[in-house]
C-alpha cells in the first residue's frame, strides 16, 4: 500500500546511498522525483542545461558556479548518486550523532559545508583562493553595477583581512578561521518539511 | 445463450432507466435528490478515520511540523538584505559599515541549492500533495503499510471507484455530450429569435449539469449577484479543462479556443450552430491583432454571451495564480473576475499536460472520489485611466488570488517553456551591490 517501497527499489544502491548521505527514505524519494523532473528527456542523468532550466537558478548571480559544483572535472553528466551526495552537504548537522573515532566525517559536517563554499571560490582547485579567483566571484555577484577599480579594492581589502600567512591568497584554513563565528549549520543547511 | 443475452439486455435497460431517471432528469432541471450530499458526508467521515489511523501509526516516528502542503523544504522568508546582514553580523570584524565578506556568497549558494531541490515555477506544475491521505495512492508519497483495516478500506475504495463509480460516470458523460451535440444541432435549425437563444441556453446548461454529475461535482457559488453579464469578459484562474464545466453550470458563456479535430471538433462545430462561440484556427492564433479584433467584435454585440477567458494561458496546480497575459485586458473595459478553488481532499483536479494526455486525465478524474470546488464571482473591474493593460491584469490577478486563497505569483506560466531574461539576474546584482556600502564612498581611505 502506498508507493514508497516500490519507488525506493527503483533507485539503484539506495541503501548504500542512504547510509552515506543520511537522507531518510522519504527524502530519497522526493529527491529522486526531483531528479526525474529535472531530467526532462528521461536520460537517467542530468547535464548543465537541465540545471539551467531552473528559472530562479538562472537568475542567481553565482548560479553557474553552483551548477558546476555538481559536475566532476571533465564529466558532463551527473547521475542520481552524485546529485544526492552533493545535496547531502546541505543536510542539517546531526547533533545527536555519536562521534565514532574511525568513521569518516559525515558529508554534512560543518567542515565539509565550508569546503563546499570554499570550492565555489576556488575554481582551479589548488587549495587557495587567489586574488584573481576572488575578483571573478565579485564580478559575478556584482555584474555591471561596479567598476574594475572598485572590484579590485574590495578584493584587496578582503585578502588583507583574511590572509594570515601573507601569501596573497586565502587557504582553506584561513577561510575557515575568518568565518568561524558564522552559524554555518543555519546558513548552509536546507531542512525538509516532510 | 440467447437467454443470457436477453437478461443482459434487460439489465442494461434497467440500469439506463435508473441512471436517466435518478440522475440525468433531476440534473437537467437543476434539482438535487441529495445523493451527492450523503455521499460526500460518508466520504468525509471515512477519510477522517483513515487520517487518524495513520497518525496513530506514525506516532513512533518524530512528527514533523505540518506546513502548508505547498513546499517540501523550509525556506527562510527574509529578504536578501536581512539574510546577508545576519551572515555579516557573525563576522569577527563585525563590519557595521556593511562591506563585502566572503560569507555573502553563502546566501546565494543556499538559495541556489534550495532552487535545485524545489523551485517556485516547477512546483506549480506538479500536483499539490496532501498532508493527510485521502485513500488515493496517487496523492501522497509518504505513506506506507499501516494496518490491515486500512488496507481493506483502501481496497474497498478502489473497488467502489473503479467498478461502481467509473461506469456510472462514463455513462453520464456519454449521455451529456451526446445531448449537447444533438440538442445544439436541433436548435441550430431554428431561425434566429429570442426563443432560439433561450433554447440554446437550456441545452447548454442541461448538458453541463449532466457532465457535472458525471464527475460527482459539488460546486458552491458565492456572490451570484456579480455573475458576468452579456457583452462582458469573464476571467478566471485555470486548473483544468473541467473549469469550463464548473463555470457553465451556473451561467452561459461563449467559449474561446482553438479549433480541434476529432470528437472535440464535432462538439465545437455543433455548439456554434446554436449560439456564437469564438473558435480560432491555429494560424489565426499567431496574429494578435486578428484575435483581438474578433474578441472585440464579439463583446461589442450586447446580445452575445459573455466570453470566458483563462489569461494564465496554461493549467496551474490550483495553489497559486500565475501571471495573466495582458491580451485579454486590452480588448474591453469591463472584466468580471471569477476565482475557482478546488478542494484537493476529494480529488486532484489539476491537469499536468506534460504527464497525462486528456483521456488519461479524464479517467483519473472519473476515478477520484469527487470534485468539490468553490466559485467566487468578484465584482466587475474596469481599467482605470492611466493604468496600462499589464497593471490592470495584475490588479485583477491579485483580486482573484486573494479571494480564492491562492498565492499571487508574478512568474509567467509560459516560463515553464522559455528561458529566463538576463534582466532578472541584473536585478539580483543590483540588489546585492546596494549592500556594499564602500561602493558609495569612493573617497574612503583604507586604513590598516
Automatic annotation (TrEMBL), chain A:
Keywords: Calcium, Cell membrane, Cytoplasm, Lipoprotein, Membrane, Metal-binding, Myristate, Nucleus, Phosphoprotein, Protein transport, Repeat, Transport. SMART domains: EFh (SM00054). The keyword Transport applies. GO terms for molecular function: calcium ion binding. It is found in: Cell membrane; Cytoplasm; Nucleus. Its main location: membrane. Pfam families: EF-hand_7. InterPro entries: Calcineurin_B_homologous (IPR051875), EF-hand-dom_pair (IPR011992), EF_Hand_1_Ca_BS (IPR018247), EF_hand_dom (IPR002048). GO terms for cellular component: cytoplasm; nucleus; plasma membrane. One of its GO terms (biological process) is protein transport. Residues 109-144, 150-185 form the EF-hand domain. Belongs to the calcineurin regulatory subunit family. CHP subfamily. PANTHER family: EG:114D9.1 PROTEIN-RELATED. This is Calcineurin B homologous protein 1-like. It comes from Sinocyclocheilus grahami. The lineage of its organism: Eukaryota, Metazoa, Chordata, Craniata, Vertebrata.
TrEMBL record, chain B:
Pfam families: Acyltransferase (PF01553). CDD domains: LPLAT_LPCAT1-like. It comes from Sinocyclocheilus grahami (Dianchi golden-line fish). It is found in: Endoplasmic reticulum membrane. One of its GO terms (biological process) is phospholipid biosynthetic process. It is a multi-pass membrane protein. Residues 232-343 form the Phospholipid/glycerol acyltransferase domain. The keyword Transmembrane helix applies. Belongs to the 1-acyl-sn-glycerol-3-phosphate acyltransferase family. GO terms for molecular function: glycerol-3-phosphate O-acyltransferase activity. Keywords: Acyltransferase, Endoplasmic reticulum, Lipid biosynthesis, Lipid metabolism, Membrane, Phospholipid biosynthesis, Phospholipid metabolism, Transferase, Transmembrane, Transmembrane helix. InterPro entries: LPCAT1-like, Plipid/glycerol_acylTrfase. Its main location: endoplasmic reticulum. Pathway: Glycerolipid metabolism; triacylglycerol biosynthesis; Phospholipid metabolism; CDP-diacylglycerol biosynthesis; CDP-diacylglycerol from sn-glycerol 3-phosphate: step 1/3; Lipid metabolism. This is Phospholipid/glycerol acyltransferase domain-containing protein. The keyword Lipid metabolism applies. GO terms for cellular component: endoplasmic reticulum membrane. The chain crosses the membrane at residues 12-35, 146-164, 170-190.
Amino acid at each position: 500500500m502506498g508507493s514508497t517501497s516500490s519507488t525506493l527499489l527503483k533507485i539503484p544502491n539506495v541503501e548504500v546511498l542512504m547510509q552515506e548521505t543520511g537522507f531518510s527514505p522519504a527524502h530519497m524519494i522526493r529527491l529522486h522525483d526531483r531528479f526525474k523532473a529535472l531530467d526532462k528527456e528521461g536520460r537517467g542523468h542530468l547535464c548543465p542545461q537541465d540545471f539551467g532550466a531552473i528559472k530562479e537558478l538562472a537568475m542567481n548571480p553565482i548560479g553557474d558556479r553552483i551548477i558546476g559544483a555538481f559536475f566532476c572535472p571533465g564529466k558532463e553528466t551527473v547521475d542520481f548518486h552524485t546529485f544526492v551526495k552533493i545535496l547531502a552537504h546541505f543536510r542539517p548537522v546531526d547533533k545527536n550523532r555519536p562521534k565514532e573515532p574511525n568513521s569518516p566525517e559525515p558529508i554534512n559536517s560543518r567542515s565539509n559545508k565550508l569546503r563546499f563554499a570554499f570550492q565555489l571560490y576556488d575554481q582551479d582547485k589548488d587549495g587557495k583562493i587567489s586574488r584573481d579567483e576572488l575578483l571573478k566571484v565579485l564580478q559575478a555577484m556584482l555584474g555591471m553595477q561596479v567598476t574594475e577599480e572598485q572590484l579590485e579594492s574590495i578584493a584587496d581589502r578582503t585578502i588583507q583581512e583574511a590572509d594570515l600567512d601573507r601569501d596573497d591568497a586565502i587557504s582553506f584554513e584561513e577561510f575557515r578561521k575568518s568565518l568561524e563565528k558564522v552559524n554555518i549549520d543555519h546558513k548552509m543547511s536546507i531542512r525538509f518539511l516532510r | 445463450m440467447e437467454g443470457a443475452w436477453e437478461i443482459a439486455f434487460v439489465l442494461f435497460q434497467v440500469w439506463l432507466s435508473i441512471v436517466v431517471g435518478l440522475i440525468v432528469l433531476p440534473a437537467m432541471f437543476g434539482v438535487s435528490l441529495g445523493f451527492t450530499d450523503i455521499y460526500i458526508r460518508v466520504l468525509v467521515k471515512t477519510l477522517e478515520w483513515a487520517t487518524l489511523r495513520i497518525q496513530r501509526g506514525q506516532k513512533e516516528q518524530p512528527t514533523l511540523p505540518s506546513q502548508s502542503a505547498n513546499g517540501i523544504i523550509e525556506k527562510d522568508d527574509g529578504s536578501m538584505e536581512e539574510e546577508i546582514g545576519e551572515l555579516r553580523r557573525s563576522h569577527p570584524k563585525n563590519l557595521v559599515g556593511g562591506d563585502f565578506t566572503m560569507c555573502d556568497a553563502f546566501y546565494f549558494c543556499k538559495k541556489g541549492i534550495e532552487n535545485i531541490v524545489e523551485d517556485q515555477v516547477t512546483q506549480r506544475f506538479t500536483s499539490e500533495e496532501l498532508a493527510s491521505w485521502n485513500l488515493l495512492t496517487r496523492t501522497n508519497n509518504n505513506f506506507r503499510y499501516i494496518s490491515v483495516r486500512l488496507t481493506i478500506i483502501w481496497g474497498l475504495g478502489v473497488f467502489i471507484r473503479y467498478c461502481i463509480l467509473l461506469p456510472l460516470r462514463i455513462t453520464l458523460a456519454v449521455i451529456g455530450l451526446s445531448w449537447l451535440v444533438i440538442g445544439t444541432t436541433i436548435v441550430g435549425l431554428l431561425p434566429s429569435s429570442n426563443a432560439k437563444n433561450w433554447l440554446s441556453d437550456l441545452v447548454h446548461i442541461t448538458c453541463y449539469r449532466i457532465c457535472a454529475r458525471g464527475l460527482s461535482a459539488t460546486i458552491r457559488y458565492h456572490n451570484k449577484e456579480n455573475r458576468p453579464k452579456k457583452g462582458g469578459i469573464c476571467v478566471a484562474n485555470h486548473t483544468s479543462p473541467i473549469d469550463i464545466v464548473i463555470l457553465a453550470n451556473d451561467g452561459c458563456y461563449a467559449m474561446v479556443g482553438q479549433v480541434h479535430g476529432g470528437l472535440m471538433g464535432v462538439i465545437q462545430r455543433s455548439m456554434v450552430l446554436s449560439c456564437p462561440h469564438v473558435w480560432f484556427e491555429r494560424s489565426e492564433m499567431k496574429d494578435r491583432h486578428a484575435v483581438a479584433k474578433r474578441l472585440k467584435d464579439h463583446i461589442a454585440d450586447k446580445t452575445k454571451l459573455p466570453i470566458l477567458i483563462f489569461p494564465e494561458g496554461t493549467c496551474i496546480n490550483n495553489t497559486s495564480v500565475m501571471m495573466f497575459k495582458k491580451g485579454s485586458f486590452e480588448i474591453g473595459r469591463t472584466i468580471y473576475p471569477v476565482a475557482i478553488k478546488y478542494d484537493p481532499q476529494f480529488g486532484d483536479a489539476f491537469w499536468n499536460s506534460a504527464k497525462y494526455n486528456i483521456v488519461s486525465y479524464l479517467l483519473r478524474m472519473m476515478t477520484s472520489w469527487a470534485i468539490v470546488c468553490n466559485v467566487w464571482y468578484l465584482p466587475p473591474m474596469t481599467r482605470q485611466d492611466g493604468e496600462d493593460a499589464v497593471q490592470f491584469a495584475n490588479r485583477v490577478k491579485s483580486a482573484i488570488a486573494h479571494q480564492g486563497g491562492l498565492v499571487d505569483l508574478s512568474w509567467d506560466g509560459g516560463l515553464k517553456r522559455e528561458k529566463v531574461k538576463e534582466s532578472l539576474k541584473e536585478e539580483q546584482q543590483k540588489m546585492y551591490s546596494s549592500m556594499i556600502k564602500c561602493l558609495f564612498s569612493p573617497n574612503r581611505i583604507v586604513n590598516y
